[in-house]
Amino acid sequence: MLLVRNDTATQAHAPRKHGADLVSGIDLSDVLAFFRRQRLTIVAAIAACAVLAAAYVILARPRFTADALVLIEPRKTRLVQGKPAPADAGAENAFLDSQVEIARSSRVVLKVIADLGLGEDPELSAVATGAVARLTAALRGVISPFPREGEHAVPLSEARHQAVLENFDRNLAVRRIGLTHVLRISYTANDPHKAAQIANGVALAYITDELRARDEADKLAGGWLEGRVRELREQAIAADHAVQRYRLEHNIIETGRGLVDEQQLYDVNGQLVLARATTAEARARLERISDILRQRDVEAVVTDALRNDVISGLRSRLLETIRTEADLTRHFGPEHGAAARLREEIAGLRHSIFAELNRIAEAYRSEYEVAKARETSLEGSLKSLVARAAIRNEAQIALRDLERTAQTSRAVYETFLTRLKEAAQEHSFPLTEARVITEATPPLRKSQPRTAVILGGAICFGLLAGIGAGLLRERRDRTFRTVDQLERETGLTCLGIVPHVSTPRSMFGSKQHSLLQYATEAPTSCFARSIQSTKIALDIAGLGRNIRVIGVVSAFPGEGVTTIANNLARAAALSGHKVLLIDANLQEAPPGKDAISTPEPGLYHLAVGGDRLESLVKQDSKIPLSILPAGAKGVPNAPDILSSPPVRDLLGRGNAEYGVIVVDLPPLATAADARAISPVIDAFLLIVAWGRTPQDILSSAPAGSDLVFERLVGCIMNDVDPRRVRRFSPKDARAIGSLQA
Questions:
Q1: CATH number for the domain whose boundaries are 490-740
Q2: Which of 201, 298, 479, 585 could anchor a disulfide with 666, C-beta 3.0 to 4.6 Å?
Q3: Could you tell me if 9 and 544 are in contact, meaning their C-beta atoms sit under 8 angstroms apart?
Q4: For the CA atoms of 41, 42, 46, 48, what is the dihedral angle to 10 degrees?
Q5: pTM strictly above 0.90
Q6: CA pair distance 502, 522, nearest whole angstrom
Q7: Which phi and psi (to 5°) does residue 688 adopt?
């Protein structure tokens, strides 16, 4: 089947594109084709890796892994200690990660080794003495033949001890299970019982180390707290002494109701208020009685007069006498002697009452003076106390500072004393934050080597290695295998796919002759149909152009140019055209190509000897085909001969005598003949051998032949293997299959 594009004529004149500018995607068919091509390489790589993995699994010594589970309960310990549980998840994770590292620490490992007597265990104490170790030591000696400063040879015992630690650490694995507080302690050994024993030993050593660490931390903290408490107690006592000394120095004495000075101030102030009230009262009584005395009002009454027996008696006698005198005067007249004596008695009584009131007034005056003096005295005392209070307030500023210092010292002291008692109480509880929840038991199945993992990994590695080897082979194969690849790299349209033909020599006498005439001798074959399709594609490409002279050329020798040119010329002759086939390859003939490389006269004699064309051509007896041999091979000035006037006239005159002229040209990469004859060639047809034409040669060959490149109408993929092409392009295989149908 011929792949003919509708834009063949347009692409024949279009400038050539480089393969880097033509990007094509990789689809599933390309991937499947790659696996079909490289299936043997991939299967071989997978099989080799699987065999090696199986050998390792069979020959490797089985190892067993035992697991012990340890639960860490930090909240439990904190609750017993009276501390709140932390709410920060980050801090909790950091704490658990720290516990993992503690379980793997050398302190725990050394304790397990000592408790279980693993220092002389052959599995752990073996010092690396293999080929790798010797090679490493030799390289280290070559790189640094002289010991560095401070370096010294490691004794064998120390090396064995280091080997025990390294091997133990290599076999030990501690990890946190998910987001839980459970640690999985795993140990791998050759003996399942020893693996379980060591895993349990590590768990027990970890818990014991936690208890010992807590005990050591408590002792260290207790000692520090005791020293700190003594120091704080001395500071608190010194601060209290400073407060008391300051109080004594500034006479600041406190009672149950406050400071003495303040209490005195309150008392004096209260007494002063009472004294002022008493003075006011005494002054009021004194003023009252003074008014009575000035007014000579016997009837006026004062409080003390009412309570005075003398005045009461005199006042009673006065009233009785006045009443008697009034009766006598009413009955006997004012001049009566008894009435006169009563009036004298009344005057005496009044005088006596005023005398007694004067005495009371003197008493009031004395009381007033006393109250006044007491008030004055209290005012003086109050002023003195106020002055002392002002001085005391100034002193209390420093006193309050001393008291705050003393109070702070007492508070710190009490806090540390409380913490010391708590630490002593905590030390009495043998609590730990970890406990074993599942003891390790001897495993029933081996953990190493992991057969499924190793075989699966080997198969995956073999697959990758096979794919890599296949890609490397694909990369090294720089020939053309598909039509898409040819069109992408050259920018030309592929006009036909010519399959490989294996023709017996007995059919036409020689294999070369049979191939040159195969299109006419086997017209129903796939080869003949491909040539016919190519001829039709050339006719389509020539629409709108006067294409009569067709140059068949290749980039590299041995690509079947002569075969294609002969069969193409015969296909054109079978279609009714008068065809002239010219062998223009004057270079050295490749081995086996002697059909038209005969001593018969030909193109060389036409160009050099001036022979006539009619005497040089040979006519085919069955079809209208004329053949002009080369006439000579190995001509040193072949380009000059091809560009000579007789050859130019031949091709120009031939356009009128022959309908189609097919010119068999030498390769572009080895000769400049095609460039020399290109001005008289209407179109060039490029032949590419499937799986043999190097891409780099084809890419560089037209670069020095501009006219040839400009007149290329397309290319043909020749000698395609119908069976192998399916691995590279199912589309090309289907195209060849349609030609065979």
A1: 3.40.50.300
A2: 585
A3: yes
A4: 10
A5: no
A6: 13
A7: -125, 125
The token pair that represents 735 in the structure block: 């195209």
Give the span between the Cα atoms of 377 and 277, in whole angstroms: 15
For residues 554 and 196, what is the distance between their CA atoms, to the nearest angstrom?
77
363 with 292: CB under 8 angstroms? no
Distance from C-alpha of 632 to C-alpha of 600, rounded to nearest angstrom:
8
Q: How confident is the model at residue 82 (pLDDT cuts 50, 70, 90)?
A: very low
- Sorted by sequence, the CB contacts under 8 Å of residue 205 that are 6+ apart come out as 108, 111, 112, 115
Q: Could you report the per-residue pLDDT of 234-262, keeping only the tens digit for each?
A: 888 988 888 888 878 777 776 656 666 67
Nearest-angstrom CA–CA distance, 677 and 683: 11
Strands 618-619 and 660-664: unpaired
Sole residue written with tokens 């035992």 = 66
Give dist(CA 268, CA 286) in Å, integer.
26
Helices (H) and strands (E) in the chain, counts: 29, 14
DSSP 281-344: HHHHHHHHHHHHHHHT-TT---HHHHH-HHHHHHHHHHHHHHHHHHHHHHHH-TT-HHHHHHHH
Residue with tokens 């501009």: 706
Which residue type occupies 384? Answer: S
> Could you tell me if 638 and 586 are in contact, meaning their C-beta atoms sit under 8 angstroms apart?
yes
Taking only the tens place, the pLDDT of each residue in 645-682 is 888 888 876 556 788 889 988 888 777 777 788 788 88
Report which residue type is found at 380: G
